Amino acid sequence: MKFALIRERKNPPDRRVVLSPVQAAQLEHAFAKAELLIEPSQVRIFPDSSYTQAGLQVAEDITEADVMIGVKEVPVDALIPGKKYFFFSHTIKKQPYNRDLLCAILDKKIELYDHETIVNESNMRLIGFGRYAGLVGAYNAFRALGLKDNLFKLPKVDDLADFDAVKTQLELIRTELPPVNIVITGSGKVSGGIKEILELLHIHELTPKEFLQLGQFQNNQTVFTQLDVDDYYTRKDGLTPTKTECYNNPELLESDFMKFAAVADILITGHFYGDGAPYFFTREDMKSENFNISLVADVSCDINGPIACTLRASTIADPLYGYDPSSEKEVAFNTPGSIAVMAVDNLPCELPKDASEGFGEMFLEHVFPAFFNDDADGILERAKMTTKDGTLTERFSYLEDYVNEPKTRF
Ligand SMILES: NC(=O)c1ccc[n+]([C@@H]2O[C@H](COP(=O)([O-])OP(=O)(O)OC[C@H]3O[C@@H](n4cnc5c(N)ncnc54)[C@H](O)[C@@H]3O)[C@@H](O)[C@H]2O)c1
Fold it and tell me: Can the keyword NAD be found in this entry's annotation (predicted)?
């Protein structure tokens, strides 16, 4: 079986890759029948020479490979018909901007395996960059705090070599943190990354109940609490929802977040927001005297949705903006009375080396073995979105109306 690590072609350039040179060499050692080609790249975090030095073949012509492996969407004209492809296609939620891409994949009779669709039997995602989004998002929250209140100046993660350098910077500001109350949301990979940063800063964790009691007295240490779905949602009928209801029955729910917003200074999000679920807080809620949050690092980053001040995604180059609750408009991030917002939607790109290595580990563990054990765990079968006959698989048949909308078809 011949695999190719393809070059990223999207703009802005993405430096991540699915296997580091060391991991690429491991693949060929682990599976005697695996061969790997590396398509050259000027932007990849690991230079072509590092793959050559690891004993791999760097080749401009990769057409002989059966399986093409990348990170971001592949432009339509670079898709080679009849191949298997792995990349993030951003089509499973019927994203309008990638409809033509999925149509082209069907027309070119490509078998698409989206990284997001690689799940175990319980439908839990097995690979992703979430941890790195959490790490960078939480760091960016403290960077914003330092800039907003003139406390300290942290460099951008993008300007640091790797996660070890990030840890060194955090150590420098650890004792300079003011006594702020931090809320984090979610319980998945992103929130795991956020928590790692808070733990590196030795920030004390409280239960949601203990956190709410802070409202009654002056707190003199930096603390955080982690909220899961059943903490920030309640049932309209006053009963406590189960987690399953929170995921599957959004019509039963209403937000219970404002009691936390009254106590928190900083919000760092890592939740998944399900379609039709209540908003955490609205623009009206943000006008309330009880809304105490002055800084939001919205890693979840749903635009004009559950976190009302996230008006747009921001960029690695310019990560911060401000939200003025009275005018409901964007202002400079350090405008007095405004809420500073960090809503970068490609955070893992700021840690390309660590993110690539972490992703590679998961890919080596969960995906490559499936090619050599007849897909014993059903990984490939569940992940496959399109077939070599140009049709959607059963699991993704709900995309039929999306790809058949009248408009361009390749
Ligand atoms: N800003 C960025 O660069 C960036 C990068 C990666 C991920 N993200 C976003 O962060 C969010 C979390 O990602 P993750 O990797 O931690 O996901 P995850 O799958 O690891 O965790 C999601 C959590 O949400 C829960 N959940 C699942 N379905 C839910 C539903 N319908 N309603 C409420 N909760 C539900 C899960 O139990 C889990 O605890 C996602 O919205 C993702 O798009 C942002």
Answer: yes
CATH number of the domain to which 118 belongs: 3.40.50.720
pLDDT single digits (tens) 163-185: 999 999 999 999 999 999 999 99
Q: Which residues pair with 386 in a beta bridge?
A: 392
Nearest CA to ligand 1 atom 29: 247
3-state secondary structure at position 77: helix
Consult the annotation and say whether 17 binds a ligand: no
Question: Residue 328 has what DSSP assignment?
Answer: T
Last residue in a domain, options 350, 370, 390: 350
- DSSP assignment of 268-316 equals EE-----TTPPPSB-HHHHHSTT----EEEESS--TTSSBTT--S-B-S
Residue 43 lies in a domain: yes
Closest-CA residue, ligand 1 atom 18, reads 188
Confidence of residue 142 (pLDDT cuts 50, 70, 90): very high
Report pLDDT digits (tens) over 278-304: 999 999 999 999 999 999 999 999 999
Q: Which residue range is the domain that position 309 belongs to?
A: 130-350
Pairing of strands 339-342, 295-298: parallel
Of 222, 129, 143, 152, whose CA–CA distance to 183 is shortest?
222
Residue among 91, 117, 108, 75 nearest 403 (CA): 91
Residues 371, 284 share a domain: no
Residue 157: CB atoms within 10 A of its CB come to 25
- Closest alpha carbon to 278 in 299, 303, 262, 257: 257
The structure tokens 């960059």 sit at: 129
Quick check: helix, strand or coil at residue 224?
A: strand
Cis status, amide bond into 75, omega within 30 of 0: no
Ligand 1 binding pocket includes 250 (Cβ within 6 Å): no
Among the three residues 350, 365, 384, which one is the final residue of a domain in this structure? 350
- Catalytic entry in 10, 72, 202, 271: 72
Domain tally for the chain?
Answer: 2
366 labelled catalytic: no
Q: Are residues 106 and 179 in the same domain?
A: no
Note whether 250 and 276 are within 8 A (CB). yes
